[in-house]
Amino acid sequence: MPAGPLTATVAAAILGLGVAVHQYIERRATGTLTDIHTTDTLYDRARFGHILDYDAHSLILHGQRTLILSGEFHYWRLPDKTRWKPMLQQYRSAGLNCIRIYFHWGFHSPAPGKYVFDGNRDIEYLLLLCEEIGLYVLAAPGPYICAETQAGGFPIWLAAQREIRLRHMKTNFWKEYDPKFMEYCVEYFEHILPILGRHQITNGKEGCVIALQIENENFQHVFGYPIGLHDDMRVLAKTARDCGITVPLFTNDGFEQGSFVVKDDPRKNKKDFGVDLYGFDKYVVFTPNSEPSSWVVGRDSSHLKEWDPTTVRSELDSMERKVRSFGHANLKTPIFIPELQGGWFNHYGIKYTYDEIYKFYGEKYSRLMLDTVFSQGCTMLNFYMFYGGTNWGTIGDSDVYTSYDYSASIREFGLMSGRLRTLRLGLLFLQSFSDILVQTDEITNKRSRTVKSSVYNTVCQQRESKVLTYRSGPVELTFIRNFSHKKVDQFELSSLADELSDRRSVTKLKCFAPYKSSFIALGNYTTLNRDIHLVLSATPIHIRGFSGGDLGKLYQKHHYPHKSEVWIAALAGRGPTEMAFRGALVIQSAGGRNMTAENGIKIRPSSGDRNVCVLSVPEGAKDAFVVLGSANQAPTDPVLHIIFLGQQELSTLYCYYDNRHGRRRADGKHSAVDASAMASSPKIVTWGSYNALYDPDQKTLTVESTESQKEMHILSFGDANTVPVNELSDFGPGLALQTIPLTETETVLEEARGSYAGWVSRNQSGLELSRWQTRTTDFGIMDWKECPRKAPKSDLFENVNLDYHFTSGHILYRAQFKTTPYHRRFGGTVAATGKDAQPIWLKLNSRHRVIAYVNGVCIGSHMTYSRQLMRPGAKMGYDPISRGTHKFLITTKALEAAATKGMIHERQNSEPNPERQRLLAASRAEEQTHEIILVIDSLGLSRQPFVVDDIRNPRGLLSARVQGKTVVKGSEKWQVAGVDVRELDMAYGSTGFPDEHESKGWKATAELPSVVPDRGVTWWRTQFEGPPSAGVPSPPVSASSSSRHNPPPQPEDDGTGLTADVPLCCRIRGEFSAMIILNNVLVGRYFGSDSPQHDFYLMSGLIHKSGSGKLNELKVMMYGSEASSTKDTSAHIQILPWIVEDAQGELGLWSGNTMFDAFEKSAPKSKALQAGPFWTIRQSFALGSEN
């Protein structure tokens, strides 16, 4: 046969075989449980659609289209339950209206059949908090959650049952349905889902849960290869419905792959299973040591390079078309991102910290993600993470260390970062104009787009709203995103004329947008006054409110001179601030700081369009306002009132929207559902303080401020309008605007403020830690178990830590072996010790960190860990357990210690110890028994992401053998000890040492904590007084107290007065390992240079505050090896406030990045970053109505 036909035949055969294999795998993935149909688990829109519905644009709650702006919240990463509420309040004040919660199966189930839902696992309380605060919930109970947690959230007891296929994984990239695994998943769902079900919005009691996620990143296909099992999804979805879940179900692809989408006619497509809403995750920019290629080829771990904008463009700019291309239900449901990147996590072995990762992404990254996905029509999103929290105990997997800061919007110790503040401005715009943004379509014809830029790559998209503006068609949204190659920060926007003008007419506006920043430019928008029509704003508008409003009640009550539409907009960082309007406008009032009559706000005609005028605020203004009317303004016609604020003021901007369609009040009662009250107009707006939170039930405003913040502004609208119109405010007439002092309060409060400041100042270099006590672990009293080998002659052990359930922290090993005094060589004998001694080695293979002691002498330490795939100790994926062997030389000193019973070796030129010499001489004539102690610290079980089967990768001691010519064959016996996590109340809360709660053996010492290798494992403890926090009694501020132009609101007279929040840090330096325990809670794991973390958050809810009558106990377990010891054996341990750059927010940065060296003598005196302790004062004001 000729070569050509033969080649074609072979190719056809291979192709046919490939197709047949693919069809087999596809049929196999489709499953056999086809009696469970998609229609059995679909959301019942006929029954509940009046409460919750959806279409291709958005969710519809109680008949109103609603944006879902969510942030991830892991309650199990906040061990102090008292911090849940203030943290969720920070989410709310940041502009979010929803959270997503991963519910952690293993956190609630420490042992088979045992489920715990109280204490810091009380999810009923958590959901009640969400209803009280006004946050919707996207509930994600797994069963698998990933989340960089041990075993991906599966219970340890389940992972230890090796016959069970977790996630149905038979091996890497291959699943086989396991009914026994599903039985356990159903059991878990039957325990947790009824709790979630009680809080569903569909219950008619205004619950918070609006959707339930099934599984997590459970791809149906990956690039066409069938992975996900339909039977898995069928059983989970059916169980959810059987447990009373009535809200829509959703799933999330790890990236857009179109998994488990409901087909157009699910009744006919019974073999294909789908869930109500399709979601997909978007992680766009990875740090160099996390992006996928680094799993194969390592990256420099010492620094970060600038990220490339083309990554964002390629990943996001065609997202909408890709998702819609999956067809079927994806054409009829909102674009939904359950995990939108809000930062990134860090790894062991990296040299840089979360501070460097924060700088890598920058303050504008999350805002950039937000604006870009909205340019793709997304109306449901969840930032992962919004607050990362802490991998306290051992809850993190082997990929992450204690801090899970994530460089997120809220830093680990609670600081609301500059990234949050930049993001919040975007969220406030979305909330203010939500009626416009819930229904938009891409302007696909680029010729139809009305805005162009003078610089390439500064406009990424333009969309038009379904909301029509008066006479001029749909409102237009232009998405400004500066990815210019030259990194310019100023360019010119050209607005083409609207339908009422000549299409050749062009208006040009100056636009300021720093490199890698973004905003949504509003255009073709008509205000309350139909004669005031915005053509285009070249500066961000953040808030829109209606003073007087359409309801009319307050208009009559307060005798407003007229209704007005109020905007809060940004002043350009450089150059003029410009907006274009159609028609003739009149400035009724204007003003601002750093402006003169000659150099003030102007209206000039457009040079390219006679029907358009340009409003321009000059460069250099600190703040400004303008009240605009039309040329034909009647006395009762509405006006447009614009307040312009600079970046520092905008960083403190807070806004309360009453967008809770139904909410549980603090008194436990439910408010009535009133969709008409859900307009996008805000109720309360403030700026000038670190943070604020309005309580609509109590009508109180809680304010947090720093020492440098002197005053704040409160602007109220609608039903929340609690002060009379202020005709003399700094921001123009006709507003219910109040300026109040934050420091000029009653003397008793000022004294309290001073006491807080004094405490922080005294302790900014560290609290005095003295009166230490110490003890040493006695390995002899532990409950040792035999540690059998796989075979008599094998070096491998039959079991690893998972088999013993020793998965929290350390696992301990002990061995005995014997040596003879001589060994034979060439017919003679050679001494086993002394100058002619032959070496003895301990050869072992372990995961992850091991320190070895022989006869009480430390012989070294080693870490087997890799960030790359298929390397020994691989953090993820296949771990070649036959590799990773390390050999320790058992030193003469260690061998002789068996004979001398631990007597100290004589130093050079010192007098010999006769007793020691006698014991050594005797040992050379007889066999000696030696003891090995191995302390192995596991970094945690892997988490089994996507299609990887790695949860059961071994930890602890894999193999060991003592080698040497004088070692007696068959004398080596191994034992194991640890803490069985099934016996703990919380499976991740132990150091792994059975004596961790030992109360005996503690001795007072004048020494400071130190690490002497041959002392073994030592424990140190001390006590310290916490920072002040409790308030002082305070009378209400008198109505005659001075504020600018109007009496201030009154602080609440509830006996609390001022309170302070002073987060504390435990800072450790030195080459050793340590476990940090605060008030009996394991809060940190320290690994010296093997981990970038040296600063550990001491959770505020665990700290006993000054005046509480309780001291705090700090306990540190430490050990180190000879190889890492230095002349300085001290363990440098400090407790101090967090020292950060721009601690007072005077620069508007609020990064939260640490600067602990700022107060050291050698530190430079530069004030560029305003380093200092971060702390805030909290006070509440009752906003009483004026009659």
UniProtKB/TrEMBL annotation:
Domain Glycoside hydrolase 35 catalytic residue range list: 58-424
Secretion signal span: 1-20
InterPro entries recorded: GH, Gly_Hdrlase_35_cat, Glycoside_Hdrlase_35
GO biological process, alphabetically ordered: carbohydrate metabolic process
Record's keyword annotation contains RNA-binding: no
This protein's UniProt keywords: Signal
Compositional bias ranges of the Low complexity kind: 1026-1043
UniProt keyword Cell cycle, yes or no: no
GO molecular function: hydrolase activity, hydrolyzing O-glycosyl compounds
Region annotated Disordered, chain positions: 1022-1058
One Pfam family named in its UniProt record: Glyco_hydro_35
Similarity annotation: Belongs to the glycosyl hydrolase 35 family.
PANTHER family assigned: BETA-GALACTOSIDASE RELATED
The protein, known as: Glycoside hydrolase 35 catalytic domain-containing protein
Source organism (scientific name): Entomortierella parvispora
